[in-house]
Specification:
By secondary structure, the chain is an alpha/beta fold. It folds into three domains: 192 residues, Vaccinia Virus protein VP39 (Rossmann fold, 3-Layer(aba) Sandwich), CATH 3.40.50.150; 93 residues, DNA polymerase, domain 1; 33 residues, no CATH class. 42% of the residues lie in helices and 12% in strands. It has a seven-stranded mixed β-sheet, with helices on both faces.
Length: 351
């Protein structure tokens, strides 16, 4: 089926806040790890022109198609890659796109995926229970629903969906299997919990849990955050927008840990971890959408933005490539030139 490039309309969440948090500058290099429909990417390219460059990554091949059309005016400044951000370091090495001035993760589903998509991300449209961002992935939501034990489903829905009725829902799913479509699953969930009672639909959390499990979203996020830190040039910014507590907890804990010199347990008499802070928090408090933005774009209501900046302590640098670079006397306000850094890495690899 041919993809409609003009619909649906996607409104980037916390757009101005994101651009400010990234401290976008002329000629900068940036990575949008979830390029989606290209909303944030467009703003980054506008602010970094002339000379700005952007690497856009998305696991969804449909999103890459939409972004390519959206960013056509910047085609000479954009590299779009259909891959999962869990492979961030590999992608940057492959395309020689490092170090960078800023990295963005916008973790929410795009309007493209929440519209009448044929993969079953939304319970508001009847579709096969797929939920894979990429067709290359083997495990689908149908596999999980129809092959997992009741105990496994209970744990998955409770852990990833934070659903208090997980036991009843899991029991009803097992009784009604096989389940093949979103409409069938919604009906089973409504029967399990007795229909809609609160502000959100009773299927919301179960669908979230299945999507997270299918795409290994939490594990991939933890891995990608670690990789992102090493790809930032000194002074570069890491910006993450999350939409539910599980994601935000991972981001918050990671940034807090990486902004401390010591991560030993509080009861430890002295520091033995040898950990050195690599990030500093730019905002102590999380950034959330204004009431005006929420009114214009209800999907933004749960968004939380966190931002940190890459730092270094020269007195603690070991004999690494980065230290050798700093000793060359290059004065670039902490920005490392890729060509020189590459030569230094080559020297180290041959020694």
């Amino acid at each position: 089926m041919k993809l409609n490039m003009s619909a649906p309309t996607h409104i980037p969440v916390l757009l101005e806040e994101t651009v400010r948090a990234l401290a976008v500058q002329f000629g900068g290099r940036y990575i949008d790890c979830t390029v989606g429909s290209g909303g944030h990417a467009t703003a980054i390219l506008e602010r970094s022109s002339p000379g700005g460059q952007l690497l856009g990554i998305d696991a969804d091949p449909k999103a890459i198609e939409v972004a390519r059309t959206k960013l056509e005016a910047y085609r000479n400044s954009v590299l779009l890659v259909n891959d999962n951000f869990a492979n961030l370091e590999h992608i940057c090495l492959k395309y020689d796109f490092q170090p960078v001035h800023g990295i963005l993760f916008d973790l929410g589903l795009s309007s493209l995926q929440l519209s009448k998509d044929e993969r079953g991300f939304s319970f508001q449209h009847d579709a096969p229970l797929d939920m894979r961002f990429s067709p290359k992935q083997e495990l689908s939501a149908t596999d999980i629903i129809n092959q997992s034990s009741e105990a496994t489903l209970d744990n998955l829905i409770r852990s990833y969906g934070e659903e208090r009725n997980s036991h009843q829902i899991a029991r009803h799913i097992v009784r009604k299997r096989p389940i093949q479509t979103t409409r069938e699953l919604v009906k089973v969930i409504e029967q399990a919990v007795g229909g809609r009672r609160g502000r959100i639909h009773p299927a919301t959390k179960t669908f979230q849990a299945l999507r997270i499990a299918v795409n290994h979203e939490l594990e991939n996020l933890e891995s990608a955050l670690r990789q992102a830190t090493s790809l930032l040039g000194f002074g570069g910014r890491l910006v993450v927008i999350s939409y539910h507590s599980l994601e935000d907890r991972i981001v918050k804990q990671f940034l807090q840990q990486q902004s401390r010199d010591c991560i030993c347990p509080p009861e430890a008499p002295e520091c033995v971890c040898g950990h050195t802070a690599s990030l500093q928090l730019v905002h102590k408090r999380v950034v959330t959408p204004s009431s005006t933005e929420v009114e214009l774009n209800p999907r933004s209501r749960s968004a939380k933005l966190r931002v940190a900046e890459r730092i270094t302590r020269q007195d603690r640098l070991s004999d690494t490539v980065e230290k050798l670079y700093l000793q060359t006397g290059d004065k670039t306000n902490g920005w490392r030139k890729p060509a020189l850094l590459g030569k230094l890495r080559m020297t180290f690899s041959l020694s």
